[in-house]
Specification:
It contains one helix and seven strands; from the N terminus they run E-E-E-E-E-E-H-E. It has 103 residues and is mostly beta strands.
Length: 103
Amino acid sequence: MNRRQQKFIVTKEGRLRLGMVKRHCELLKPGEACMGGGFYELDYITRKLLLSGASSEYGEPEWEEIKSLRISAYYRGLNIVYTPWDSWKEIFPVSERIDIVYE
């Protein structure tokens, strides 16, 4: 069954893009390249943007390669956190380790 899910990608230009799509590639614009992706949830109670998992097309985000992350101003004030599916990997506090630029 192929259904739409809340997915995200990080482009080579450092843009975090979120959307309800079937495949991660639907979030890319023409000419863009992807540095990984996964799934997202918005938790307004704890004021967090929860990122998790990996894209079957692009793998896990390459956080260590990203100097600044560009995201819609709609998400300003939310703490961004990434949780890998592999339990042996550490949670990555995106907002604490990467400069966030709101557009």
